[in-house]
Amino acid sequence: MKDGIVESYTSLDNSISIDVAIIGAGMSGALTAYYLRNSGFSLAVFDRRHVGMGSTAASTAFLQYEIDTPLTKLSSYVGPVNAVRCYKACRSAIYDIESICKKLKPSFDFHIRPSLHYASFKKDKNDLFTEYTLRRDHGFKVDWLESGDVEKMFRLDAPAAILSADGGEVDAYLLTHALFKAVRAKGHHIFSNTNITDITHHKHGVTLTTAAGLNIKAKKLVIACGYESQKCIPKQIAQVNSTYALVSESVQEDLLWHKNSLMWETATPYMYFRIVSKNRILLGGKDDFFHNARIRDARIKRKTEMLLHSFSQKMKQIPLKADFSWAGAFAVTKDGLPYIGAIPERPHTYFALGYGGNGITFSVIAAEIIRDLLLKKKNNKVHLFDFNR
Ligand SMILES: Cc1cc2nc3c(=O)[nH]c(=O)nc-3n(C[C@H](O)[C@H](O)[C@H](O)COP(=O)(O)OP(=O)(O)OC[C@H]3O[C@@H](n4cnc5c(N)ncnc54)[C@H](O)[C@@H]3O)c2cc1C
Hints:
By secondary structure, the chain is α/β, with parallel strands linked by helices.
């Protein structure tokens, strides 16, 4: 809302043939196209909305390697070795975004931020400590804070917390536009208002059909349609939930906390907050475990009150007034990891599904893996996120 439609791309108006078609012009499609922009493949990206107007526009854009499933729990799903490798892949993704932002012309605003994961209740402290020791033992830069330290550094009322050095923040919507600008500068095509209604698979590629009846022939296809990708996959791989967010009016600078850290808690669903421009607080959470846009949107007012109330319980010194509130859909998987790669039912096709609360770091990993699969390069992360894990 703040930035409006940054750049408007035209819709497709004639049938075309290209090497790689990407459906979805959100963060995942943008990063995949960016990673492929110098690959030698001709690319075209299609979106039925405007660029970045899916989940990407709703994103609160916390960049954290700590995915929604704690390392301790993820180890029980995928084994301790793979769990640590997933966490490390997410941590690298934060720094990959930083380096992409530096390379963009003009360079794009990105900040490394510490991330504070605080215990919501006393009963959470032991599990949080186990999580801390596991991460510390695997080389993550983490500190354990007792209640008094949390109070002193963050003015937050919590029994204990893990302070991680490696987090980041970015404007997801503007970054998506900046990436597409760089992709277009290399001669590739981006089409908005172009709804792909059918995909046919052939021996040597795919044909996409648009709602306007045009055909797109491509040797390879990348599906980056966010939670809407589910309809292209024969089995149910994720549940779509609703989530709520608000941005506050500006608050007094001297009331803010240690190094503009990203803040989140152990409760499920969790509340999270960070400081954005002009000392506003971006606050989110109070998820519902269903997805019905009409019911969800009718709850925004109530959820805003609930978020403000929960925030005031924790950060008593900051009087918060909501300036703008919204809701969005996000998909969650059983283990909290994204699905990236191919399925036998859809030949010549790769999925970039950045599901979960850390979708943006997953989008980076998806872009890197899909580039390597298309270029037939070895990538040792493939099996961590594939559909058969
Ligand atoms: C409120 C909220 C807060 C979030 N906070 C965070 C956060 O703090 N940190 C984080 O890392 N992640 C967060 N996420 C998740 C993150 O925003 C998403 O994972 C990410 O934006 C997904 O990007 P995407 O490109 O995969 O999907 P999307 O942005 O949804 O893009 C998919 C695109 O595909 C298009 N499309 C779908 N079907 C078709 C079709 N048939 N033809 C043509 N186009 C089609 C859609 O129009 C859409 O633009 C949040 C999400 C929400 C909703």
